[in-house]
Amino acid sequence: MSTTPVATSSRLNHVRYEIRGSLAHRALELEAEGRSIYKLNIGNPGLFGFRVPQHLRDAVAANLDRSEAYCHQQGLSHAREIIAAQQRSRGVTDSSVERIFIGNGVSELIDISLRALLNPGDEVLLPSPDYPLWSAATLLNGGTPVYYSCSAENAHFPDPEEIEKLITPRTRALVVINPNNPTGAVYSRELLSQLVRIAERHRLVLLADEIYDTITYDDAEFVPLAPLAGAVPCLSFSGLSKLHRACGYRIGWLSLSGARARTGDLHHALDLLAALRLCANVAGQWAIEPALTGPDTSAALTASGGRLHEARRAVLDSVASSCFLNVVAPQGALYAFPAIDRALLPGFDDEQFALQLLEQESVLIVPGSSFNLGTRQHFRITLLPQPAELRDVFSRIERQLARGAEPARHVA
Ligand SMILES: Cc1ncc(COP(=O)(O)O)c(C=O)c1O
């Protein structure tokens, strides 16, 4: 009997998703041995006691009998009409039901969109750090990621001049993640308008990942990209996973906007790829109407006294009192992206630290380099735990960093 391993696709050679990678596997092993682990590697609200709002759950339950057949490849038409109406109310004046595609989460639609767009060697401008699915889906669809910097030194904002310098004849698309995962940056109207002008000048497609939508803190305001883009082709992504805490429903959508004369072929390609996977989960689509037309259930979480607001406060206080850490305060989304002070910990390596933190302090975080970042001094932590848990987590992080600062004593 042959023992030769089954070969896998070389397309996967550079594909990584460390949010659920080797550290997360190790955490499961430790749990199986009876250890209790703070698993802060993933923005999955349902794991932290958040519930899907009752009116969304009721809508799904009430419509299960109508969820047994495949639906249209783009999604239930009444749900798409609701999404198109939201787009129109936000200023995408000609949004309509046939320009909306519902998918099994934004994740599936990111893959479909890049598959629809890219030829081998086409370049996609991605933020660094990025949400790593964007890099993975670019590579899997034959594209080449080209990173523009969103460094802490620039408050995690992109520099439009740098972006423009990275453009080549092969550049096809500009990905904008706003509010940003992992950094929490929220982009201003002025910055977004500059990005639109770049796309216009260089005939790029805008890919706006807006899954965190209005999850913003303090005075930050979420500005959707599509209304600013006008005639520039733009795919805007959002869904139920974050704002409506319904990750498990696997419902996301994309809205196609821009001059119809330029987007006809793209529309056709998206439709074909959507048809190949038949349709998105039908039961979950019944939650779209109550989510977009019912009461706002997230504003109270991010307002002063709300759970996410207080969790963010706990992170900011902990970092402020740390000897080793600094952070650009997240203005949106569900994460903070602290960095260590290299002067105090010159040999710091984010992956090694994350493993030691897991082994010694039972805390699972994601190293910053997992987000396609060239430097190795950041980590990402989700804001979803209770504030008191986050304070405990940061005292463990501080202890681990102190061990790193005094290696001689630690070895002894
Ligand atoms: C920026 C970003 N885009 C897309 C996704 C995927 O969302 P979905 O659950 O809709 O697939 C996530 C999930 O964390 C995300 O952070």
UniProtKB/TrEMBL annotation:
One of its GO terms (molecular function) is pyridoxal phosphate binding. Its cofactor is pyridoxal 5'-phosphate. SUPFAM superfamilies: PLP-dependent transferases. It comes from the Bacteria. InterPro entries: Ala_Aminotransferase, Aminotransferase_I/II_large, PyrdxlP-dep_Trfase, PyrdxlP-dep_Trfase_major, PyrdxlP-dep_Trfase_small. Keywords: Aminotransferase, Pyridoxal phosphate, Transferase. This is alanine transaminase. The lineage of its organism: Bacteria, Pseudomonadati, Pseudomonadota, Gammaproteobacteria, Lysobacterales.
